[in-house]
């Protein structure tokens, strides 16, 4: 059950995150209207009196075509030619922002943790309900009292050689990314939103771990908790370090097997490849070259750890790899102005498509 929750969470949250990221894309990208062509806009009776007082009507021809209207002032209504900004993304555009787009705390509208957490009440309710529903089937199976379990890390004597631990990190990372986007938008980029998102994501996954603590063959794993915090912390670091989000991504790849896709058991862990991708598109020196379509990858996966493999005496294998992967989002959707294109590009910042990379691992094996 734990396995099913972990993978289904990753697959469900990536497109959900992408959709939310692009839900208001059109509104966000519409900028201010162009500046008025005329350097002088004469409005109201007071301006007319000032000009009339000078009695030099020849100067009117030097105002770049601007005309003085004889109509009375329009009152408190804004003039039609005023400089307007469309969209709700930045209701206070003149606020100072740091290099990552956050408003310093002294100017922020939501300065405290609970203020920021309260701005995503609906999102937290949805995520909590989703996590809760994944745990309901456990209540209809034999349970035990709350207990801890030392599951180990990446050793060959562990159940999944650490693949379950990386799944914990990735799931929590996705949740933190989703919450950061929503908090950032709902609080106008108030400083501290990335940390708030990381804390909420870690807390949610820590509560979910309680359902493992009542399973006879599982338990509350501190290794899982540490990996949850690590994934959330990486999200916070990525969203508060200038340029890091454009240069570095934590990605998951799922390689099809003989069943194409396994959603339960160790087989689904064996399909996974986790990686850190250094994105060429994030560097100015290569941004205008074909190298922007390539990522440098460093990652990990495991193989031959199924129960059937162990019964046959096959030694489990751990694979650290380096490689070069195609940044499909940059290749296909970098110039997309549609919501679908933007959503696809956002999703591909978290998912690496299979067969789009060339890698060499510590077992001396090449993979594609």
What does this structure look like?
The structure is a single chain. Strand 5 (357-361) and strand 6 (366-367) form a beta hairpin. The chain has 2 domains: 2-31 and 113-367, no CATH class; 32-72, no CATH class. The protein is globular, with a radius of gyration of 27 Å. It starts with a helix and ends with a strand. Helix 6 crosses helix 7 and helix 7 (193-208) runs antiparallel to helix 8. It has helices at residues 2-22, 25-29, 44-54, 113-118, 121-135, 163-186, 193-208, 222-240, 244-247, 266-270, 307-311, 328-333, 339-347; strands at 248-254, 272-279, 294-303, 317-326, 357-361, 366-367. The chain contains 13 helices and 6 strands. 40% of the residues lie in helices and 11% in strands. It has a 6-stranded antiparallel beta sheet. Mean pLDDT is 82; it is low at 24-90. The protein is α+β, with helices and mostly antiparallel strands and 368 residues long.
């Amino acid at each position: 059950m734990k396995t099913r929750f972990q993978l289904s969470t990753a697959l469900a949250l990536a497109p959900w995150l992408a959709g939310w990221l692009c839900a208001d894309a059109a509104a966000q990208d519409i900028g201010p209207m162009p500046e008025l062509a005329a350097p002088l806009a004469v409005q109201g009776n007071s301006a007319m009196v000032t000009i009339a007082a000078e009695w030099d009507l020849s100067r009117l021809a030097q105002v770049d075509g601007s005309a003085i209207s004889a109509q009375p002032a329009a009152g408190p209504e804004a003039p039609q030619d005023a400089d307007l900004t469309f969209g709700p993304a930045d209701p206070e555009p003149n606020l100072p922002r740091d290099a990552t787009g956050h408003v310093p705390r002294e100017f922020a509208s939501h300065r405290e943790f609970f203020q920021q957490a309260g701005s995503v009440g609906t999102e937290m309710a949805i995520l909590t309900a989703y996590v809760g529903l994944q745990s309901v089937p456990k209540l209809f199976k034999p349970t035990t009292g709350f207990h801890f379990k030392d599951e180990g890390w990446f050793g060959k004597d562990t159940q999944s050689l650490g693949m379950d631990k990386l799944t914990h990190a990735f799931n929590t990372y996705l949740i933190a990314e989703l919450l950061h986007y929503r908090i950032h938008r709902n609080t106008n980029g108030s400083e501290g939103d990335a940390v708030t998102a990381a804390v909420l994501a870690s807390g949610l996954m820590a509560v979910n771990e309680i359902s493992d603590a009542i399973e006879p063959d599982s338990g509350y794993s501190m290794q899982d908790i540490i990996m949850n915090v690590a994934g959330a912390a990486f999200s916070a670091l990525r969203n508060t370090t200038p340029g890091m989000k454009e240069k570095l991504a934590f990605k998951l790849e799922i390689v099809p097997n003989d069943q194409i896709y396994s959603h339960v058991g160790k087989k689904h862990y064996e399909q996974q490849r986790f990686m850190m991708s250094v994105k060429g598109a994030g560097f100015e020196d290569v941004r205008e070259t074909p190298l922007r379509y390539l990522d440098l990858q460093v990652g990990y996966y495991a193989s031959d750890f199924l129960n059937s493999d162990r019964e046959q005496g096959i030694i489990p294998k751990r694979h650290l790899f380096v490689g070069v992967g195609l940044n499909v989002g940059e290749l296909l959707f970098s110039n997309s102005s549609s919501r679908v294109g933007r959503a696809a590009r956002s999703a591909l910042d978290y998912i690496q498509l299979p067969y789009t990379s060339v890698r060499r691992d510590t077992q001396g094996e090449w993979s594609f």
